[in-house]
Design brief:
- By secondary structure, the protein is α+β, with helices and mostly antiparallel strands.
- 35% of the residues lie in helices and 28% in strands.
- The protein has five helices and eight strands, in the order ααβαβαββββββα.
- Strands 2-1-8-7-4-3 form a six-stranded mixed β-sheet. It has a two-stranded antiparallel ribbon with strand order 5-6.
- Strand 3 and strand 4 form a beta hairpin.
- The longest helix is centred in the N-terminal third of the chain and has 17 residues.
- It is globular and about 45 Å long.
Length: 142
């Protein structure tokens, strides 16, 4: 079975898109972590920043729980959740948080999730210039 071949349905993809946003907005650690496979990975510049590691990868649900807890505790005001729709190929889910939003600038991020059997197997977060600038200027503190 390849990355895009799984038993994931369109409904499960949409569920992840909606449930991730709800968990993020509520800072609901249990709900967020429940969306991941037990051996899931998450890659983000924020991993290196918050955990002080060389590698920007978190592996496994237990480590994800610790990382997401730190993320929720250190979200700046610019980390809003304005987004419009998503793209999917049936196994990969992608959406953008554009810098320009109806309420002003927000952190510019693209989320890419590989979904297997209805749960996130691999999650990659790509940051735009505004978000990277927040890290280098110390606005997204540890």
């Amino acid at each position: 079975m390849t990355m895009t071949e799984s038993t994931t349905t369109d409904e499960q993809i949409e569920h992840i898109f909606t449930a991730w946003d709800e968990a993020l907005g509520a800072k609901d650690l249990d709900a967020a972590v429940a969306l991941y496979q037990p051996d899931a990975t998450l890659e983000s510049p924020l991993v290196r920043h918050l955990l002080g590691t060389e590698e920007g990868v978190v592996r496994g649900r237990d480590n994800l729980r610790q990382f997401v807890d730190k993320v929720f505790a250190h979200q700046p005001a610019e980390r809003r959740r304005y987004r419009v729709g998503f793209l999917t190929d049936g196994g990969r889910l992608t959406w953008e948080y554009p810098r320009e939003s109806p309420d002003g600038d927000q952190m510019d991020i693209v989320e890419v999730m590989e979904i297997q059997d209805g749960l996130i197997a691999h999650h990659r977060v790509y940051w735009g210039w505004m978000s990277v600038g927040m890290l280098t200027n110390g606005k997204h503190s540890k």
